[in-house]
Amino acid sequence: MMRQINTDKVTDLVEKLCIEANCNLTDDIYTCLKDCGKKEKSVLGKSILNTLVENADIARRGTDPICQDTGMTVVFVTMGQDVHIEGGFLEDAINEGVRRGYEKGYLRKSVVKDPLDRVNTKDNTPAIIHYELVPGDKFHITVAPKGFGSENMSRLIMLKPSQGLPGIKDFVINTISEAGANPCPPIIVGIGIGGTMERAAYLSKKALLRPVNEKNSRPDLAELEAELLDSINALGIGPAGFGGTTTALSVSILTNATHIAGLPVSVNIGCHATRHAEGDL
Ligand code: SF4
Fold this sequence. Notes:
Elements: E1 3-6, H1 7-23, H2 27-39, H3 43-61, E2 72-80, E3 83-86, H4 90-104, E4 128-134, E5 139-146, H5 148-151, E6 155-159, H6 164-179, E7 187-195, H7 197-207, H8 219-233, E8 248-258, E9 263-270, E10 277-280
Helix pairs in contact: 1-4, 2-3
The structure holds iron/sulfur cluster (SF4).
Iron/sulfur cluster binds near residues 67, 71, 149, 150 and 273.
């Protein structure tokens, strides 16, 4: 039996999540920033981390966004195959939610309709929407506004399989090193390995959703993440790029089956305001 969900409910939820994501730093990142503030070796770095915590506190109190760059709205939809959407087109309902959320929350409108003529759509639509179809009748939405200071420093490479783990590590470290202060560190590093070119990019974005205090369920990947995190923090870029021991808060890896002849690797950098909010219908 199909479960009916009306598009009005989808719009209302997306509207709420846009405001929530932009104003409430998730607890895991907030706590991590606080802890890093205690451990950071640089005095200036420590002060920056404490300021970021204070900034998050102010944003949580009212309706002020965590950052002026309220991002391009990335929406992850996980939908059971036993769900039927009624009342309109799902994509229109999501974009209407973004439109209302950005208006109601006084969030900056940062989207241009065409990448060449660069005319602002003035309502932050269209969102970038990823759909995942699953068994059952659940309907889950995650709204993840993505700032472009960090998005612009993200990179993808098609390695040869023979380059293996050393090639992956070099690519990740070089990407973060070249990014320097641009992605507003401390950063979160999402890595997608395998699949095809676009699958690796998608996975690296999705990897940013994992709480920073959660370990990878695969022990070998958890070990790789810990090694990469140490190497990234040893770069000394530090909070806001002013030097220090806290360049990244976490590294999160997702993998996918791939072709015998390829090793796609994508690094999606999330800034200190790596935001998301989620809800079910
Ligand atoms: S990269 Fe993040 S912290 Fe930096 S300006 Fe953009 S949203 Fe704000």
